[in-house]
Specification:
six-stranded parallel sheet; alpha/beta; 8 helices; globular; Rossmann fold; two-stranded antiparallel sheet
Length: 297
Amino acid sequence: MSLNKDRSGAESWILGICIGVAIAISAIPLPAPAASTSSPGRSSYFRLRLRTRVEVFKGTNALQEAYFQRTFNARTTAIVITDMWNQHWCSEATGRVNLLAAKMEPVLERARAAGIQIIHSPSDTMNFYKDYPQRRLMIGLTLVDPPPSLGLTSPPLPINVSADGGCGTPGDHEHQAWTRENPLIKIAKQDVISDSGKQVYSFIHRRGINTVFYVGVHANMCILDRTFGVKQMTNWGIHCVLLRDLTDTMYDRRDPPYVSHADGTKLVIQYIERYWCPTALSADFVAALKPVGSGHR
């Protein structure tokens, strides 16, 4: 009987100590959760309408434009600004690029605010930016080996500019007129600068970026064929999208198929949609990035 009393007393004593320790631990303040990098009420995800081209009835070669919705994560998305130079050897092209830069800049600002990475790629002008921190970051980047190419190819473009380079300005001849990116386009602190496909791939790979939106010029040349362009990135497994109203072509109506410059650009965009990647409109893109509670649905 006394043994039971001793055991009961010991158990009560141990229970009291456990309760006391639990109360003491509960009184210790826990670390505050890390502050979110997103603005209050804003999701990093956005949904966008894309356009592509499909052969509805196989073997007919008759294409139909098709629209679909796709959800993207701003934190795994980048925009590559392609060859938006301060000056082009073709005066007509320079004028169109200036207009395009003015239209492009507010779209880029909105994308930055949403957390999308901006990559400036004005080819052949890297010496101008050699002291920019946005350029030095890319130079110092440890390169990663891209995956094996998917081996994707496409037939010739629907326009031919081999005779005059696609310039409609009489007397203009090809030469390197550009020295930097168009000054209408802002380079923000968090942006990066590179005209190397391996640098761009290494950067986006390390950042976990899997989708690249393309803006800039020219859709029938640099947008497709640069080492950081749509063809190469697609072959490395990156999802690409062209903002079709923020691009242009080097094409003149005196070149085959002898249509207007606007129609020549449309033909190239349709070609890209069929063989390489979908496209979207910049207005839809900006609307999709509006913060929750801004009135956008």
